[in-house]
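Hello,

Our lab assistant flagged a job as stuck in the queue for most of the afternoon. It eventually completed. Since we weren't sure the result was trustworthy after the delay, we are filing this so someone can double-check. Below is the sequence as submitted and the structure that was eventually returned. Let us know if re-running is recommended.
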Amino acid sequence: MVAASGGIRVLDHLPEGLLDTPATGLAALLGGPTLISLNGRRDPPLFVSVLLHGNEVSGWNGVRRLLAENIALARSLVLFIGNVDAAAAGVRTLAHQQDYNRIWRNAEGPESELAAELVARLAGQPLFASVDLHNNTGHNPHYSVVTDLSPRNLGLAYLFSDKAVYVQEPDTVLTRIFANRCPAIALEVGPVGDPRCDDRVYDYVARLLELDAIPDADLQNLQMFRSQVRVHIAPGVRFAFAGEESAPLVLTGGMEAVNFHSLPAGTVFAAAAGDPGAVLRVIDVAHQDVTRAYFKQEDGNLVLRRSVVPAMYTTDPAVIVQDCLCYFMEAMPLTP
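-- returned structure --
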């Protein structure tokens, strides 16, 4: 073990029993967020992060199975195991914590110190690529998230899926710290609890470790979307979904099913009286409130003013409060 300081435990080996430990047991075994460096046959290493959200366990499940089955790695690996305390409780983020995927720029408090320590420990370390592993919030296809459109980033994304989302906001995600340094993406591997998601992680990371270089993307077949805005419930507004109890904001049922599909202007998004800005907050990439550019009031309903493509729409109240209701995107053609 390398001497540890601050909030991150730093290891150069796999602790005994680690690969047999589910996400819920990692806090007891590791004691906190942990950075593990493992030597492989070639360098520079691949950086992989898991459990930035404690209930999104497919990344850990796939990686630990891969390590259990591959004693000799084809490429060195640097593994960051994130919010083990939230994982122990089976939740995305504990009530007193900041979201571990929102702390990598301009954060404050203990989580900002953790982020700064990880950045410092990785400083000057050549990396082959960075992959941040997540489960989807809501029903979505498998897709990648990129924060820049460099050819190697698109190649890294296309290795996983023919769908990718270009995100400029939030600008506090882990992927941002690797800008201009190495290809870096986040993967949305599917819903929690589906064992096929673990398999997708296993297969993808195994392929990356075997690569000498990241291949080009097939731009004609890569469906790229640009994230335009995040949709939030306004603070303090009580909300429900259609078919549930009455509330000042009743969200239209079935929206999860149309993630990554176009919704035309005029679609009823929710039932609510009065100004859309009283119950929703739509925030663009410049952090401006653009609610009224997307919604209008019509006969007691909030109706879309323009065509949008929703993503990550969720019916999980905790996620809605902690993060957001959904994103709106637009198709983004790529030129070969």
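-- support follow-up --
The delay was a queue issue, not a problem with the job. The result is valid. Residues 9-221 form a domain with the Aminopeptidase fold (CATH 3.40.630.10). The radius of gyration is 20 Å.
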